[in-house]
Fold each of these.
Amino acid sequence: MSKRKKAIERFRQNPKNVRFSEIETLLLGLGFKIRQKGTSHAYFTLGSHIIGVPVRKPFVKQKYVELMLQELDLLFAEDEED
């Protein structure tokens, strides 16, 4: 299993303990571009997929991690259709 898949599974198992830096590393590794970093939120874009994540320390709220995982599921579903 790749590092990215392991990270996604770890996020699914424990969405309360995910740091912004871990999300940033994962999404940039998947090809997302970061937009508007330096404000309270960072936006990651890949085509029509946009994921907004608040920059919180030490951990990102569980709801935002779950929303990110849902968007990644949609992205992976589209990739499988192609």
Amino acid sequence: MRRISAMTLVLMLGLAVAAWGGDVAGKIQSVDAGDRVIVLDDGTKLWVGEGVPIDTLKEGANVKASFEERDGKNIVTTIEVE
């Protein structure tokens, strides 16, 4: 019984971690360098984390980004301009 409970806990934690982050790709619709926020053409709002350069991000650029959810915000951890 303890094995089943432990395996269930591990599975639930794995699913929870997956919900806290992800990958997204799209075209940048707008850039707010002051607030470090970009909005993609599908409406996805991403906050560019400290240590991730924002000066290379321009409207109309296609990007791929990885993010983590922190305090209800999608914080970019890595971003690649295509």
Amino acid sequence: MTHALLTGRDPFEAVWAAGSLLLGAERRRGRLLAAAVATHLVVSLGWALVLSRALPDRRGVPVGALAGLAIAGLDLGVIGRRLPRIRALSQLPQLADHVTFGATVAAVIAARRR
């Protein structure tokens, strides 16, 4: 969102894109927002579950960051390139979000394993 504001883009662009995963070409923002919340929750929890099973006990945060990068490759490169609203997003902020997600999940998992 910060990147969008700094570059003059719609700060909700990623929200509308996430909502379009469930609703396709829907334009009504209220419906897109609801779909985006549901989509993001399910996808994030799904990836967090995968990471909780796959991440090593040691050096989890750096490996989590790399896992976030791999997830970005799948989410944005394989799946997202087929979807116009995902494809239209600025890639660098999306990559940064995925890497941060992976590192954060890894840090939470590491703290819970102690």
